[in-house]
Amino acid sequence: MADPRARRRTAPKRTLIGPLVMLASGMAVGALMWRLLMLEPVQSPGGRAGPEQLSRHDRQALDRLLGARGPNQ
Question: Residue 66: which of 50, 52, 54, 48 has the closest Cα?
Fold first, then answer.
């Protein structure tokens, strides 16, 4: 049987601090990336954010796909 007066061995503090630091830094980077990708509008080369526009060829292909227009138009 073990000695009841013996001190229990616990993990060193660095084994707890390291993962917490990695978790906190990962959360900070994740929040920064989310803000960068989701909240700030995409700027066009002219400096203004505008709606996305399809090219004529892409619009025709989309119309054919959706069946909005006949094949002769």
Answer: 54
DSSP code for 35: I
Q: Which two tokens stand for residue 32?
A: 């920064």
Mean pLDDT of 20-49: 82
SS3 percent helix, strand, coil of the chain, rounded to 5, is 50, 0, 50
Q: What angle do CA 14, 17, 18 make, to 5 degrees?
A: 85
pTM, two decimals, is 0.43
Collapsing DSSP states into helix, strand and coil, what is residue 40? coil
DSSP H stretches of helix in the chain: 14-34, 56-66
Handedness of CA 23, 27, 28, 30 (dihedral sign): positive
